[in-house]
Amino acid sequence: xxxxxxxxxxxxxxxxxxxxxxxxxxxxxxxxxxxxxxxxxxxxxxxxxxxxxxxxxxxxxxxxxxxxxxxxxxxxxxxxxxxxxxxxxxxxxxxxxxxxxxxxxxxxxxxxxxxxxxxxxxxxxxxxxxxxxxxxxxxxxxxxxxxxxxxxxxxxxxxxxxxxxxxxxxxxxxxxxxxxxxxxxxxxxxxxxxxxxxxxxxxxxxxxxxxxxxxxxxxxxxxxxxxxxxxxxxxxxxxxxxxxxxxxxxxxxxxxxxxxxxxxxxxxxxxxxxxxxxxxxxxxxxxxxxxxxxxxxxxxxxxxxxxxxxxxxxxxxxxxxxxxxxxxxxxxxxxxxxxxxxxxxxxxxxxxxxxxxxxxxxxxxxxxxxxxxxxxxxxxxxxxxxxxxxxxxxxxxxxxxxxxxxxxxxxxxxxxxxxxxxxxxxxxxxxxxxxxx
Length: 437
What we know:
Helix content is 27%, strand content 13%. It is built from 13 helices and twelve strands. Strand 9 (233-240) and strand 10 (244-245) form a beta hairpin.
């Protein structure tokens, strides 16, 4: 099916993203709408986005440039890249535009707002973090009354100081949002006393003013339209290159079943929580055929069992933290310090901040204080939220700073971090499962 070029220049960003990403359209659309199902290839097979709204409405403000620098929400949240951006896609856009695509703006896309972008070579250096890790620069300050101060900064880009921190973070996907208990890696858009819809509207407005450099905020109607659009999106793997269709032989993969999955904040938490978080591939467990597809399906089912039940550190499992049924998000507003931002794991392309906790004089060196820049608490230094796991294969690299290039790297990190001791077979099965989400 061909994609029609849209009548309105403001929608050109989205039209180009569809054309250049080879998205397959399932069903009939129209001049201002795409069908409700979009398929796109990834390294593991094919992922699918399903819109419960019945269509992908290209007239939605999500696809419109409402600021002053040419960006729309879709600039950093590309459907074929898991509704975020991935380095391969970023590099392709740089090469096509010589680094002039709206994604490449110095207000947050470059390593410093003062970076030289006068030539193609200079732009390639200025946007090196975006090109290599798919991260956006976030500027934050220490909140008033914080339990800590910033005593020293080592910034390879010579911009950040003790009064203004530069943090490099992956844009989170604008799909599967109904399974969130908190917004943003550090929860700063989760506003006390408000529901998710309000928080998402507030975040959309802030992104338009900041990332898109709008002169004025969104209207209430624009905010509502963006939130309604995003809230209807569900993304998941639909076909695995080894196991085939993920809705075959009784399996419940793909986004359509995900759209019917129950969720509310706190679901499956507390003393009575079940560790059997994922049941998508129960039908593939046990004996069956002897062909390569049959064995690949059994591997996915075994990996699901590893995720749900493989114990470490006593009684912990992967599903103890990623507890939202068949979604894998954390259903409560919990932030975890995995040591990802510690000085020991710093790479030369990341700034390093020396913090001192005032009551104890404890020194903490970190590449990103995380949640602590919202709460001001020393206990929250380096803590981040746990993201939803569906559609994982579409959106490498992983973690808040894009520090894990592949799912193999993610599993290896957890294995080493917690001393799990996965056998080669367990690791292979777990990876087969994660790629099928």
